[in-house]
Design brief:
The protein has about 240 residues and is of the alpha/beta class. It has 7 helices and 7 strands. The chain has a 7-stranded parallel sheet, sandwiched between helices. Strand 5, helix 5 and strand 6 form a beta-alpha-beta unit. The protein has a single domain, classed as 3-Layer(aba) Sandwich (Rossmann fold), CATH 3.40.50.720. The chain is about 40% helix and about 15% strand.
Length: about 240
């Protein structure tokens, strides 16, 4: 990054901030000077991350919200817009991971949950915070995706379909706002990363064989400080 605290005075919102890539990204942004709004379902888990940010000299606010609730995102947007005029950074990281199974055996309830959080909530976040993003002098939106959204894989249909829709939403939003605002959009595929979701997908894998979430978080923080062309897409391959 260009300086030690390139995001000084900026407000960042990170979903899925209670663990894994979301928590690591929130910490990285706080270290870089941003005030980070930590979004996840569980207050206790968010408070732990908030405390770690404070101990490292950063600042954060917890926002316990179930993004899958019909009114959850609307309440979140109202609360944040009541405190800040603009939103400079939004990292959409929260995701649901349905069971890996053949297409004909996909559980409708699990599939619906994945579509609700991975797709519908993404659109609701973009809609709910569009005004705040456009009031920023340099707004950036980062969506954390998966390779199976772009490269379908057997048994991964439910998750892959939701991530394909996720990617399209972000790409289209990036195209729509790039000539009328300062909002820039990037989709980041973290690649193989040591997370609970990864452990669920690959239960026999040695977690030490893949990179920790901090590697992805550092790349996201660096990307946010770059003059990337929107919409942008990249994969984090470092191990």
């Amino acid at each position: 990054m260009s300086s030690e605290r390139p995001f000084e005075g900026q407000v960042a919102l990170v979903t899925g901030a209670s663990r894994g890539i979301g928590a690591a990204t929130a910490k990285a942004l706080a270290v870089a000077g941003a005030h980070v709004v930590l979004v996840a379902r569980t207050s206790k888990d968010l408070e732990k991350i908030e405390e770690e940010i404070f101990e490292a000299g950063g600042s954060a606010t917890i926002a316990p919200v179930d993004l899958a609730e019909p009114e959850g995102i609307a309440r979140l947007a109202t609360a944040i817009s009541g405190r800040w005029d603009a939103l400079d950074i939004m990292v959409i990281n929260a995701a649901a991971f349905p069971t890996l199974t053949p297409v004909w055996q996909i559980d409708a309830r699990e599939f619906n949950s994945a579509l609700t959080l991975n797709v519908l909530a993404t659109q609701a976040l973009l809609a709910g915070f569009d005004g705040m993003l456009k009031r920023s002098k340099d707004a950036r939106v980062i969506g954390v995706t998966s390779s199976v959204g772009a490269a379908p894989r057997a048994y991964w249909a439910a998750y892959g379909a939701s991530k394909a829709a996720f990617d399209v939403l972000l790409d289209c939003y990036g195209q729509e706002v790039r000539n009328t605002s300062a909002v820039r959009v990037a989709v980041v595929d973290p690649g193989a990363t040591r997370t609970k979701m990864r452990a669920k997908a690959y239960p026999g894998e040695n977690p030490d064989s893949v990179k920790p979430p901090e590697v992805v978080a550092e790349r996201i923080a660096s990307l946010l400080d770059e003059a990337f062309t929107s919409p942008h897409r990249e994969r984090v391959n470092q191990n």
